[in-house]
Design brief:
The protein is mainly α. It is about 55% helix and about 5% strand. It has a three-stranded antiparallel beta sheet.
Amino acid sequence: MQTQQLKRYETYLRSAKHSSENTIEAYMRDLRQFSAWLTPRGVKSFASVTAPQAKEYVEYLGDCGKSASTVTRTLASLRCFYAYLWSAGKCDSNPFDAITPPHAEKKLPMVLTSDEINLLISQPKPVDFKGYRDRAILELLYAAGVRVSELIALDMSDVNLSAGFIRVGESGHERVIPIYHEAASAISDYIRCARQKIAIMPGETALFVNSGGTRMTRQGLWKMLKKYQSQTKIDKEITPQTFRHSLATHMLQNGADLDTVQEILGHTDKASTQLYAQMLMRGLRDAYDRFHPRAN
């Protein structure tokens, strides 16, 4: 019965809610793990789960070493699922409603040094299609601090290389970001020497494409980053977010104000941007305590 309910819920997410594939994958993974936990406890139906059992499962996740953010996300997945069951008349209540999510400690962002950024960007060699494309992508990640979704959604019409700007975001939430000369030049070289030589499908508008000529995927971007990280042997987690964190930190270090960084990154809440300033102050405090002759 559990398997059938999960299949129906997946269909509901895809057909009725029009959820993204990433959202569906995350929800179903959380639910399958919960189902696997229920089975050895003799619980054959989601509808028969009690509030104490729901609380026990959340505590179990914490005991397994799951982070507070992971537990919170799982809790949200389960609440949505039970809301669906309730609306379909398959259960009388939501056993997860009264559970308070754990407090997640705010982690300091991972930041690369300027030397590490330069080393990464220097890895792709502009001698073939991937070399030109990957150099342009790495330059743009650091130049504009764009998110993964924003980068792969870029169209040719979103870049104005002569003016040194790109446009990202959806209609109504767009922002225009300046990019430095080297980034504009790398994108220009990629378009001229690589992109137009790939067999682009008719009507393809994507700026960054794969070797088949279609829009680059999220998975392709992550694979590319891991490849160059392994070449540099930088012992840090490197993701597109790492470039955002590094850009923000380096700009603040060089005197940029919070409003400017907030505008570039597209933060709707200034508290998100202030985290970088707090991190810099923490670093300043550590350096002061280590080096000031009267601080110890």
